[in-house]
Amino acid sequence: MNVLKEQYELVKHTRELLFQFCETLDTADYTKELEGFGWGSVRNLHVHIAECYQNWLGRFGLRESLLLIEPSQVQSVSDMRGAFKQVDLLVHRFLDEFEGRYNAKVEGTVPWQEDNTELSVLWLFTHTLTHEFHHKGQIVTMGRQLGYIPTDTDLILPEEIVK
Description:
By secondary structure, the protein is mostly helical. The protein has helices at residues 3-22, 27-31, 42-61, 77-97, 121-145; strands at 105-108, 117-120. The chain has a single domain (3-160), classed as dinb family like domain (Four Helix Bundle (Hemerythrin (Met), subunit A)), CATH 1.20.120.450. It has five helices and two strands. It has a two-stranded antiparallel ribbon. The chain starts with a helix and ends in an 18-residue tail after the last helix.
C-alpha cells in the first residue's frame, strides 16, 4: 500500500464535498470578485489551488514544463473538475516517480528566491495538500459572504467514502 496515494484519495473525497458546495453557487457568484481575498473570487482561488500542484509537483518536482491553468480557462465548476482530473494525474505521476524515496531532495529555484533551494519530496507533497486545505477554508468563507450555507467540507467518515 502506498500511504501517500491513500492519503491523496482522502483529499480527493473532501475536494468532492467542496465541488458539491460550489455547484450550489450561482455561476455569477462562482466568478464574482470579493474584496479581502488575495485571489478575488471562488473560481480564481480554486484555480490557484490547482496551479500550486502544477508548480510544486510538476514544474519543481518533476521538472515538467507545464502550461499553468489560468482563471480564463475556467468558467464553471464543471471546468474546474476537469482541471483537477489533470491535477490528479500529475499527483500520481509525482508519487510514482518518487515511490519509496519520500525523503529524497529535489533542488531548484523558486521565483521569490535568488538561490536554489532543496526540498524533500515529502515536503512538496505535504505543502500542496496543506495549501489546498488552507484555501478550501477560504472558499467556504467566501461562499458564506455570498450568502450560502456550506456543508461540512472537512470531515468525511470512512462509511461515506464512495469508491
